[in-house]
């Protein structure tokens, strides 16, 4: 028996094929287009605020909110979810609902308060970052029906909505108006700190858009749209003010009934991260 393969010396034998290189993962275009558009809304808001056009700045942030609510739903409906998209969405949220609202309210009012003004803006920005990091950490254990703390888009709507209402009333800046500057200061701190509380805020994620609904629901949606168009700054700001206190109302009601107030659905075994879940 030969101790070698005759084909080793046969020039006509086919050469072994090189190993296949791993295929590079692509990026889904559709959901990331919505995410990029939301990111642009936040960037646009900052640029408009720097130019003193606070109404346009507010519209940019509210447009980013709409686009941010769509990118995840589009990804799920088209089965184009990806780890890249999740990370991109978080970074976009940090810009549009963290840094941008802080800068807008700082330019509009807080810069007149000196160090206290930029400290309030920084606290809001830092709380937005902490809230997003905690959301990504707890995404597998939080009850899907509720947010743990005020969601960053709603916090941005509170801060920027206040600026929009005042600008619509003819107040182009509050750096020299003490009571308005301090009001913006208090609202900025409230929105920022509420983001990092454990207060439950309804998420509306249990609403099934593909399920049939009674006709009256469609009529109600049409009336809601008509109500918003009456005066968008006041109506939108009012709605988000109600939402911004709804979590505390739910928390107090649950406490009074002796029901659990935590939105953590299951426990985890990571002792180093136990503080994130309480």
The profile of the biggest β sheet is: 2 strands, antiparallel
Encode the helix/strand succession as letters. Answer: HHHHEHHEHH
Low-confidence stretches: 266-273
Category by helix and strand content: mainly alpha
Radius of gyration computed on alpha carbons:
25 Å
CATH superfamily: CDP-alcohol phosphotransferase transmembrane (TM) domain
Q: Order of strands across the biggest sheet?
A: 1-2
Beta fraction: under 5%
Oligomer: single chain
Q: Judging from the principal axes of the Cα atoms, what is the shape?
A: globular
* Strand segment count: 2
In CATH terms, what is the fold-level topology? Four Helix Bundle (Hemerythrin (Met), subunit A)
| Assigned CATH architecture | Up-down Bundle
Rounded average pLDDT: 85
In whole angstroms, the N-to-C terminal distance is: 73 Å
Count of individual helical segments = 8
State the name of the first-level CATH class.
Mainly Alpha
Q: How is this structure best described in words?
A:
With 278 residues, the protein is mainly α. It has a single domain (29-205, 213-277), classed as Four Helix Bundle (Hemerythrin (Met), subunit A). Helices cover 62% and strands 2% of the residues. Helix 1 (29-50) packs antiparallel against helix 2 and helix 2 runs antiparallel to helix 3 (83-108). The longest helix has 26 residues, at 83-108. The N and C termini lie far apart (73 Å).
């Amino acid at each position: 028996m030969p101790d070698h393969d005759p084909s080793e010396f046969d020039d006509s034998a086919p050469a072994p094929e090189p190993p296949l290189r791993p295929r590079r993962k692509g990026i889904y275009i559709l959901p990331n287009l919505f995410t990029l558009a939301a990111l642009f809304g936040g960037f646009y808001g900052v640029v408009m605020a720097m130019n003193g056009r606070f109404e346009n700045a507010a519209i940019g942030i509210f447009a980013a909110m709409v686009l941010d609510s769509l990118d995840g739903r589009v990804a799920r409906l088209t089965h184009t979810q990806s780890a890249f998209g999740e990370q991109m969405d978080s970074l976009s949220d940090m810009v549009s609902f963290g840094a941008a609202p802080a800068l807008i309210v700082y330019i509009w009012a807080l810069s007149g308060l000196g160090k206290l003004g930029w400290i309030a803006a920084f606290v809001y920005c830092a709380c937005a970052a902490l809230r997003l990091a905690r959301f990504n950490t707890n995404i597998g254990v939080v009850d899907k029906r509720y947010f743990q703390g005020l969601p960053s888009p709603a916090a941005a709507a509170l801060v920027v909505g206040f600026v929009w209402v005042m600008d619509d009333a003819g107040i182009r800046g509050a750096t020299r108006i003490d009571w308005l500057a301090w009001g913006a200061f208090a609202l900025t701190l409230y929105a920022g700190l509420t983001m990092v509380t454990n207060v439950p805020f309804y998420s509306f994620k249990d609403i099934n858009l593909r399920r049939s609904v009674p006709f009256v629901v469609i009529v109600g949606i049409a009336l809601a749209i008509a109500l918003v168009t009456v005066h968008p700054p006041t109506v939108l700001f009012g709605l988000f003010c109600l939402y911004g206190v709804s979590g505390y109302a739910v928390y107090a009601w649950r406490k009074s009934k002796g029901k659990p107030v935590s939105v953590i659905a299951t426990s985890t075994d990571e002792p180093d991260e136990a503080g994130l879940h309480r």
